[in-house]
Each structure stands twice: as structure tokens, then as C-alpha cells.
Amino acid sequence: MRRIAELEQILRPLRSAVVAFSGGVDSSLVAALAARALGDRALAVTAISPALATGELDGARHVAQAVGIAHRTITTEELARSGYRRNDKYRCYHCKTELYDRLVGLARAEGYAAVLSGANADDAGDWRPGLRAAGEHGVRHPLLEAGVGKQEVRELARTLGVPSAEKPASPCLASRLPYGTEVTPEALAQVDRAEQAVRALGFGVLRVRHYGELGRVELAADELPRALASPQAVIAAVRGAGYRRAEISARPFRSGSLNDAVVVPVIGST
Predict the structure, then answer these.
(1) How sure is the predictor about 126, in pLDDT bands with cuts at 50, 70 and 90?
(2) Domain residue spans of the chain
(3) Is the entire prediction scored with pTM above 0.70?
(4) d(C-alpha 71, C-alpha 92), whole Å
(5) Which end of the chain is more exposed for a tag (fewer CB within 10 A), N or C?
């Protein structure tokens, strides 16, 4: 396929690269392309921290094995950075700075020529302070460079048989905390418990937004009617994770909704 060949041509001259690898479809496609273009001189690296949701590491390992790229984990300490804990609109900058500090250090120590990210062309028009951190570290974005947007990312991932081709976006757990709410290990763990409990009820695409004692559940449009018709199980699942109050948003899940200041109707308990 012409597009795949074009992306491989971007990667091949690098000769070696480390891929910042979450296991999501974007970084998985880059990992698959790097494996094809660079062979055993491509390495996928997944960062482990309290902000990584349960199950994400296992998923990343599965994808790495399927696409044939070497895989490694590192530990990042973004919670040690006051700018990250403060959780203003630059939180992702501090998180990515921590990540790329580690990955660039690894690449230099082991002789890899580049660090790659899964940023795609659609990210250029969104609020992505992590791209600033990438620029400061010389990180390459092959999908962005080639003008590949999210829809095409999924199409190419399907073509290459990447297992995460249909995987919904799954940003770090800190994205569930509204700006201005301090990021703590306890809050991240509580969100993770709540999301796992709701997911165990058979819901696939969801977020539990963290508002202190309140956990607000957002569900995909096709799953929301079932939850609203019989909300007790979802409410109980969230409260079982340690929230004193739980609500189900009457508006379907939309990525980035915490950037909105709109009051959304809710159904829940007090």
C-alpha cells in the first residue's frame, strides 16, 4: 500500500528508534511500521506510573508481540513534578517532559538514533501541550509528518493487522481529574477502581470523572440508555470504589469534555 510505504520511507533512514508506546492505536501503528522498517533496531517502550490504567500494560504487551517489535517497560515519576500535580492546562507538558527525558536518555545510552511518538495529524489542531515537550526533546512524529489523521490511522492499522486497530482512546487516568484538582496517587487509584468496576458490568467506552467525593460516569451513546434505564448497578459500582456520591451523565461520553464549562444533566445518588 502506498501510504504504508511512504511511512516506512520516513522511518527507514533513521536506522534505529525507540517508540513511545502506550498500546493505543496511534503508537501501535508507529510500532508496527518501525518493526517493518527497522527490524530489531526498533524498540517499543511503555511507561509505568500510577496514571496507567489497569489492563493497559497487558494490552501493550499483546500488541508488541503481535506486530513483532521488542518491548520494554520503564518507570516514570511525573507525580514528583509539581507542575504535573498542580494539574493546570499544561499538565500533559510536564507528563511528556518526564516521559521524553527518560526515553531520550535510554536512546542515547543504548545507541538508538531517534525517539518516535504516535501523534497524528488531527493532534495538530487540538490542545496538545505534550507536543511542545516532544519538540524540546527532538521527538519525531511520523504520522503527523505524513499528514495521517485518526481515521486513516485506524485504516492502516487494520491493513497491517494491528490488534488495537479498533481500540477506543484511553488517555492516562489523570485526564479524569478537572483542571485545578491536584493529581494524587489516591485519586488516580480511585478512578481506576471505579472504571474497572463499571467496565465489569459490561460497559466498554467510559470515563469516571473525579470531583472529590463525587464520581461522575460518562458512557458511550450506544451504552448510555441501558445505564439510565437501570442506574443502580453503575451507581453502586462507583460508590464501591470509594466515592460518597455517584452520578451518570445524561450526555454521552466525548473525549476532552473536561475542557467544557457546560453544566450537564445527571442522574445519581447523594
Answers:
(1) confident
(2) 2-159, 184-268
(3) yes
(4) 24
(5) C
